[in-house]
Amino acid sequence: MTDTSDLQAARLRPPRAAWRIRLAPAGALALLGFAAVALAGVLLRPALPIDETRYLAVAWEMWARGDWLVPTKNFELYAHKPPLLFWAMNLAWSLTGVSEIAARLVGPAFALLCLLLTGRLARRLWPERPEIGGAATLALAGMTAFALSGGLTMFDAALAAATVGGMLALWRAVHAGRPRDWMLLGLALALGGLAKGPVILIHLGSALALSPLWSAGRITWRAMARGAGIALGTGLALVALWVVPAAVTGGAEYREAILWTQSAGRVTEAFAHARPWWFLLALLPVLLFPWIAVPALWRAGARADWRDPGLRLCLVWGGAALLLFSLISGKQAHYLIPELPAAALLVARLSPERFPLRVPALLLAAAALAGIVVAAGLVPLGRAEALLQPRAVPVAACLLVLATCLAALRLRGLAGGAALTLGTVLSLNLLVGFTATRPLYDTHRIAAAIAPFQPAGIAFYGQSYHAEFNFAGRLNVPVATPATAGDLAAWLAAHPAGVIVARLDRDHPAWPPHETIPFRNAPYAVWHAADAPRPESSP
After folding, report:
1. How far is 3 from 56, CA to CA, in rounded Å?
2. What's the distance, CA 416 to chain centroid?
3. Cβ neighbourhood burial of 113 (10 Å; 0-12, 13-18, 19+)
4. Cα(161)–Cα(114) distance, rounded to whole angstroms?
5. 161 HSE (CA, 13 A, CB side)
6. β-pairing, 458-460 with 499-503?
7. d(CA 408, CA 430)
8. In angstroms, how far apart are the furthest CA atoms of the chain?
């Protein structure tokens, strides 16, 4: 008869040999494929305005000012996001020097960490089947939403890595009950909080609070409460190492923003991204593609033993987050990225060894054929037509998608699904990188035109400015944002040798521009203040 302590030890310490054998054919290939596609995205496409360029600007200003406590955007307090992503980019620059590529590799690095941790968690949940570790890594890399978001300079991959790391610590704490495991959960809570704020409690809190239900009696409610106290105390103490000095240094406005407006304030009343309650539910087919379109997985789920603690944990993890975010007024599609590892674990655990991929392959093939029709000019696209030039590139990208569909049909199973997803994402990167889309969304041309005017003054007129050009131009002074013609006149009087950026199809200076530069598929231009007509002197 096997001693229960031996079984527990097996859950906590899977065989090292299994890791080496099983990771090689599945997990390692998934990591390499994801890394290659993400790197291609960084090299081929520009940093996308307004989100990626904004976060690059915040990181740059942190570097230029030498202040790691209080982030700024356009040299004004920026309380919308905590500093972890900006710290990571500055750390990369401390090793490489200031570089756009180095900064943009930070997001994919967090995504790779999330992939590794997902595989490790799978081996903890089901130690009797060590091959699931590689399968889970493959399943997550094969999720189109994760493959796309993991290549961006955003906060979601870091938050997802913290979430999976927290689940690992929680599983160990539930089964071993050691204070250090609860403290590791607290560390994950702190890293998630520093990545994107108190929202980490939504991603980890439900699994923690409901652990007596999914753990098959391995932990009592009292033990859970005691462990939760340790984890929350550890997390708060670690976050306080940044919050307290930042709140003091940043002043009252910054303090109110980070302690209320950008946390609980978002829950009670969204000041951005307000959506109906069903918004995320409607997006699930997109978020879970291609696996949601595989009938074999649905059949396997219907036959599964849902008393399994690992399956229950994944259901609580993903289901609770979906419910809670649906109840919150502000919603975005990427809010559920940290739940995709839970879905990947379910897919890896339930999937047959080889299953057909006819439905997702046919869907993508249909989309690719439609893309070829559009690229051929048979469908009028108006202004968007310019983004598809030269037409041969979108046709080639669509043909690549068709090729990956054929490869997926031949490979079958998780490997085929991952090939389908990664091939499609690669084709999108090629599409952006080699068509007119790239220069139209690249900030460097406008940044180069205005950067020499820093001593004289730079203004952005007629619309909101999100620091799009601050990093590309390595600006060390704020860009002025006059809102009205009177504001612009006052700025011109104070900066007679400055430069102005505005859209030609909106409010703009009255004299001819010095240079016209299309940007974001819109007509932008640069005006030199020195060219402005001077009022005639009275006789």
Report:
1. 54
2. 24
3. middle
4. 4
5. 22
6. parallel
7. 20
8. 111
What share of the chain in percent tops pLDDT 70? 92
How far apart CA 444 and CA 434 sit, in angstroms, is: 17
What's 244's DSSP letter? H
Nearest-angstrom CA–CA distance, 153 and 54: 10
pLDDT in the model for residue 331: 86
How many CB atoms are located within 10 Å of the residue 25 CB?
13
Bridge-partner residues for 522, per DSSP? 519
Write down the H helix ranges in 351-412: 358-375, 392-411
**527/500 Cα distance (integer angstroms):** 5
pTM of the prediction? 0.92
Structure token digits, residue 417: 């699904």
The predicted pLDDT at position 9 comes to 46
Q: Which residue, 462, 479, 461, is CA-closest to 470?
A: 479
Assess contact for 502 and 462: CB atoms under 8 A: yes
d(CA 190, CA 54): 24
Q: Amino acid identity of 43?
A: L
Identify the band that residue 108 occupies on the pLDDT scale cut at 50, 70 and 90.
very high
Query: Distance between CA atoms of 454 and 227, rounded to whole angstroms?
Result: 54
